[in-house]
Amino acid sequence: MARARPSWDPAHLPDQSGRTFLVTGANRGLGYFAAEQLARAGGHVILSGRHPNRLAAAHDALEARVAGASVETLLLDVTNPGSIRAASASLRGGIFQRGRLDGVLMNAGIVHTPRQREVTRDGRELVISTNALGHFVLGAELLVTLAKSAARDWTPRLVWLGSMSTRLGSYEPTDLQLDTGYAAWKAYVQSKVVVQALGLEADARLREAGVPVASVIAHPGYSIGGRTAIVTGVNEPTPWKRFRDGLQAPFAQSKERGAWALVRALIDPSVQGGDYLGPRFLTHGAPVRQTPSRTSSDPEVRRRVWEECERLTRSEWPFARAARVGR
Hints:
- This is 3beta-hydroxysteroid 3-dehydrogenase.
- GO terms for molecular function: 3-beta-hydroxysteroid 3-dehydrogenase (NADP+) activity.
- With about 325 residues, the protein is α/β, with parallel strands linked by helices.
- It has a single domain (about 20-325), classed as Rossmann fold (3-Layer(aba) Sandwich).
- Helices cover about 40% and strands about 10% of the residues.
- α1 (about 30-40) packs across α7.
């Protein structure tokens, strides 16, 4: 008697033919492998990143590894509001193949944060700008485009990249730019608390406004390059890194497996706005629904973070317009 497949099987994804997905930070790591999995499922994937040569390498690698893949590239630097708005305008203008957008995986980010506080060209603290503020602007720019793609059998999605680190320290975000008391670990964890708070607050505001777009959060557990397949131009760990990362096998996983939760959040028909997904054993395993940290789910923290991001980015999400076009 054949064993029944689990309710969600990363090796047998539902067909995504006819759907288009944007993946930020798609030239390396989780973003690349999520894009590859989406392409294998038949989706059209727009790889975005800030380095043309790295994007080209990822594009070539994906086409070589996935027969018949439908993929193209888009220059997008999430630390640069001008770049975000230019890329979004290209998408809205319909210059890309499908003329629709069914989901955005907001993956780009900094994991290995600088020891000293750094700022972007517009004066924003680098970590919060990369991990949270840029995607806040991107969500505002693409919300109407996503709402236009809503259908009876499909709700377009925004997927935010959370982190298990939010369970290791609260770091309530009262100083988003860390003007005082910067520390590398604090900058990372606080940025991920902010991301998760934004994802949950977006869900509440989308529901209230009647916008047919879902906001979902997913985290990859502890996914490392040394346990990941070698892909030329994308993932090329040194022998020392492969040895060192191999010692962490009992509690670590590959980037391919880390992407499982992100992809499920983006395409599983049973996933709803406000869901939070991650590996079954926190650091590794099949993707399952989980509970976000108390800090990032606190309604007052969510409201305060949202308003501060509006102030810092000078961006407001067009909820009313998105609701009208999505009807």
